[in-house]
Write a structure and sequence with these properties.
CATH topology: TIM Barrel
Shape: globular
Helix content: 40-55%
Strand content: 15-25%
Structural class: alpha/beta
Order of helices and strands: HEHEHEHEHEHHEHEHEH
CATH superfamily: Alanine racemase
CATH class: Alpha Beta
Number of helices: 10
Number of domains: 1
Strand order of the largest sheet: 7-6-5-4-3-2-1-8
Number of strands: 8
Bound molecules: pyridoxal-5'-phosphate
Largest sheet: 8 strands, parallel
Length: about 220
């Protein structure tokens, strides 16, 4: 199967129409991205700032770029002019910096709040109460150049489907709770980004709106 076949397969049959596909192209060459692009796909995710900037500069301008990895606040300035969605905002400080860079670039930057749902300690993200405290704060309400579009999370890396399902369920519940308490009159707060190559089917069953798929589209990665 070619990259183009994989993209078309996802778009046409695997995903329900309300679920967006973010093709995670990290470590893959720009030629692979172009192949997916020419097959009609426009949304790509990267997890390293420098790689994202290089690919943005080399590729067509109508690509929607998502930053999907953990990021340091001192690097926001490099992607602020063009990024479509920063998935994985996991600290109040990062929100403040994104707002500042959005202001400089005169654009409102869309973000997702990342939640820690996995049992591994290495995965980043807010805990529920931490996010609630932040959303209630004056500091948060003064931010004008970013818009919170929803939540994002990564399940534990495991074969235990029940465990993955319960973690996705937890994220979907966090989404509903935040929606009710803070975003009930904001139709833009609507995304639940969950599901990767090995667990996206469970994510669909648990209400994902955005899956982030790398290896099933582009093939296995050599770790870097
Ligand atoms: C790499 C990555 C993905 C895609 O992983 P696959 O298992 O290759 O589908 C999704 N989300 C994030 C945050 C990633 O870093």
């Amino acid at each position: 199967m070619s990259i183009a076949d994989n993209i078309q397969g996802f778009a046409q049959k695997t995903l329900p129409p309300n679920v967006k596909l973010v093709a995670v192209s990290k470590t893959k060459p720009t030629g692979d991205i172009l192949e997916a692009y020419q097959a009609g796909h426009k949304i790509f995710g990267e997890n390293r700032v420098q790689e994202l900037v290089d690919k943005y500069e080399a590729l067509p301008r109508d690509i929607e770029w998502h930053m999907v990895g953990h990021m340091q606040s001192n690097k926001v300035k490099y992607i602020a002019p063009f990024v479509s969605l920063i998935q994985g905002v996991d600290k109040p400080k990062l929100l403040k910096v994104i707002d500042k860079e959005g202001r400089k670039n005169k654009r409102v930057i869309d973000v997702l709040l990342q939640f820690h749902i996995a049992s591994e300690e290495t995965k980043f993200g807010f805990h529920h109460q931490e996010a609630v405290d932040m959303l209630k704060s004056e500091d948060f309400r003064s931010l004008e150049y970013l818009r919170v579009r929803g939540v994002m999370g990564m399940a534990t890396f495991t074969d235990d489907a029940d465990k993955i399902r319960s973690e996705f369920r937890q994220l979907a519940k966090i989404f509903r709770d935040l929606k009710r308490e803070f975003f009930s009159d904001d139709p833009g707060f609507k995304e639940i980004s969950m599901g990767m190559s090995n667990d996206y089917q469970i994510a669909i069953e648990e209400g994902t709106t955005m899956v982030r798929i790398g290896s099933l589209i582009f093939g296995e990665r050599n770790n870097h």
